[in-house]
Amino acid sequence: LAATQPSTNWHLKENAREHHTSKFSSEELIVRRGQAFTITFNGTEKPEQNLIFLAETGPKPSKAAKTLATFGISSAVSKEGWSAALQSTSSNSVSISISSPHNAVIGRYKLSVQIGSSSPASLGTFVLLFNPWSSGDDVFMPNEAECQEYVLEEFGIIFAGNKNRISGFGWNFGQFQGDILNICLSILDRSLYYRQDPVTDVSHRHDPRYLGRVLSAMVNANDDQGVVLGNWSGKYEGGKNPSSWTGSGEILQGWKKSGFKPVKYGQCWVFAAVLTTVLRCLGIPTRTITNFSSAHDADGNLRVDEFYDADGNHLERGADSIWNFHVWNESWFKRNDLGPSYSGWQVLDATPQEESGGIYQCGPASRHAIKEGEVDLDYDCPFVFAEVNADCMYWNYDSASGKKTLIFSKSTEIGDSISTKAVGRDDRVDVTSDYKYEEGSAKERDIFKKARKKLGLEDKFDPTAPTQEEIEQKPDISGKFKVAGSLEVGKDLNLLLVLENLQSDAKTVNVNMTAWSTLYTRRPVNEIWKDSLSVTLAPKEEKQFPIKIKYPEYQQQITTDKTIQVTALCHVEDGIQVLVQRNITLDNPAIDIQVLGEAKVNKEVVVEVAFTNPIDTEVKDCVLQVEGSDLLRGILELRIPPLKASEKSSTKFKLIPSEAGPKHLLVNFSCDKFADIKTFKMVNVIN
């Protein structure tokens, strides 16, 4: 006898509450693995008849691949596989509690029931996710506040700027909004791994290690038509400037809407933020990490080389670089392949910098392995180790002769103020000591030597390396740039070059100075200013030289990263050259948000955004962009009339919050003179 199609009650509200999935707005059941959920269905004449359930996922479900499970009703929850227990029965319906194993493949499942000898009847579909609340899961996170932050929180702060001046901006991860879960599942089905062998790929989806690596490749567009196309040229025609995004939703939805064509454009924080959204959505605890003075060691020798010409211009030579900051991810899971001490936070990096296994993917690298210099462990530890530990060599390069001379080397430059958002607060937390032992300590140098040894660098002669003699040479003078006054776009930039004679005889110094606008990767874009001076320093004398770069001089040249590299190359007569440099990140003018009145669920509330034009010329093409999960749907874009010098604009708009609790409103203001002025405000929504 063929059974009639049963109708299923998925108990969406109750199951979602038990499984921490209430924030998804879905008509489909979304549950976490290793935990029971309840369903009720009718169409069973005699429920005590033999019921057999089938749960299947992927293109060719099979028991061998653990993508098909068949299970009957039993009194005990199975430790190994899927199981079902009878909750209650009535005349024609039955309530069943179904449990999946802790290591079940995640994704969308089809659930069917076979009643007696009839053929299986479909009960419908549900989605199974990772379960950080369950002690048997590889992603188990014992601290509830951390689960709230790293899985359920839709707002984040990403740190940027440079090590002298750290700034943070808000980001709307929005992992529970609209169609994001379905988009995340389709990312998995478009990876190279799935295309090459769908059956094997799906069978590996129980493993956060595997998924983390696959997604680090899929979030960038290289190799696989992934989500975001990187662009570090400073020119962003045909797409959006990476600094203009305020959340992942627009990017992920744009990727889907365009028929899965890469979204233009991203830079490191965009890749990291999108990867955070996808991993939190699937239930893997994840956060963004910012590393200041981050090394991109392209040739794997744990050394980055920077080249300058005699005039002090930073040359684009060689593939190595030092970025003002770089953003990557940490995800929390067990490393069954490496052993318990390597479990916990794992580094994943979706920014396409170097290939790994032939494609642009990076990680998971155990953070503990990085700290201990265990660079031979999977995956990509040498690259991540270099990002926070590489030694820096600064060279003078003469293009005519091709000769390079070491100016100086520094082992404490790289990997500074490694930062992430605090749990439950909008503050910065410094995690540098989780990546390395104290800079300059004997232990830190020992770990560096251990890593070099494991990479075979200790015993290999490197003709490009400076000699010990070059490294140990001592300069006659020292120099530094000091900031005098404010660092704001729209204001003149005032600096002091401070030079000090370290010797007890007089020194004559010729100084060539340049200022270039750069990207945050320190890639030079436009020359802003240059000058030179000659000075004689009496024994032990210190002198200060004021430098002024006027706003009109840099206004046309500056990039939206608002970064300027100032360099002074000091040629000391009969002595070695001294390089003085400083990377300056300018602040945007302020923008202010006020919520006028109380924010209540499903009630209108007015928000006012105010901006004052700080410069003495008109600004035009003003656009205000607003977003915030549970405060408004999608993105609100408002055009604002031009503002005369010193004029203040005030813009009002309405929100209708959809959920109670602390929510974040993100604002991005742009005009022809200022790009992407960002701010955020916490809005406490009450019922």
From TrEMBL:
Reactions catalysed, as given in the entry: L-glutaminyl-[protein] + L-lysyl-[protein] = [protein]-L-lysyl-N(6)-5-L-glutamyl-[protein] + NH4(+)
Alphabetical list of Pfam families matching this protein: Transglut_C, Transglut_core, Transglut_N
Binding annotation for Ca(2+): N389, D391, E439, E444
Known EC number: 2.3.2.13
Keywords, alphabetical: Acyltransferase, Calcium, Metal-binding, Transferase
Active site per the UniProt annotation: C268, H326, D349
Residue ranges occupied by any Transglutaminase-like domain in the UniProt entry: 260-352
Presence of the UniProt keyword Transferase in the record: yes
Molecular-function GO terms, alphabetical: metal ion binding; protein-glutamine gamma-glutamyltransferase activity
Enzyme class: transferase
Cofactor note: Binds 1 Ca(2+) ion per subunit.
Essential cofactor(s): Ca(2+)
Gene3D superfamilies the UniProt entry points to: Immunoglobulins, Transglutaminase-like
Matching InterPro entries: Ig-like_fold (IPR013783), Ig_E-set (IPR014756), Papain-like_cys_pep_sf (IPR038765), Transglutaminase (IPR050779), Transglutaminase-like (IPR002931), Transglutaminase-like_sf (IPR036985), Transglutaminase_animal (IPR023608), Transglutaminase_AS (IPR013808)
Family: Belongs to the transglutaminase superfamily. Transglutaminase family.
PANTHER family named among the record's database cross-references: PROTEIN-GLUTAMINE GAMMA-GLUTAMYLTRANSFERASE, PROTEIN-GLUTAMINE GAMMA-GLUTAMYLTRANSFERASE E
Name of the featured protein: protein-glutamine gamma-glutamyltransferase
Organism in which the protein naturally occurs: Mohoua ochrocephala
Gene (name only): Tgm3
